[in-house]
Amino acid sequence: MIEIWLYPACSKCRTAESELKAAGVDYTVRRYLDEPPTVAELEDVLARLGLEPWDIARTADASKLGVTLPAKDAEHRAEWLAAMAAEPRLIQRPILTASDGTTVVGRDPEALSRVIAAD
How many domains does the chain have? Predict the structure, then answer.
């Protein structure tokens, strides 16, 4: 089973969901703007991705959202996580997690293939 953090208006999210359907895999949808991830969930996803919060942030959207982002360093990591949990539109999408824990930011065919193959 794959979980996909999805924003229905996002073309990359719609493409990812289409790929899941075409592959015939079971998946669940989490509309992460309606049900924002907690700081703990973000920590878990980042650990599986091997990335830092700023690596999966939509930094270009921050000013449009009225969010001032902190410096990209370990000292400010908790501030990044808090900002992303409070304003989930800052989180890159879609994020997919396979049942084996494989997690990707599914913005390209290669990433989608990895998570589908892992399920």
Answer: 1
Residues 10-57 pLDDT 10s: 999 999 999 999 999 999 999 999 999 999 999 999 999 999 999 999
| Whether 57 contacts 92, CB under 8 Å | yes
pLDDT digits (tens, 9 = 90+) for 66-118: 999 999 999 999 999 999 999 999 999 999 999 999 999 999 999 999 999 98
Indicate which CATH number applies to the domain containing 98.
3.40.30.10
Copy the structure tokens of residue 84: 């992303």
Strand ranges across the sheet with 27-31: 27-31, 2-6, 95-97, 103-105
**Which residues are known catalytic residues?**
10
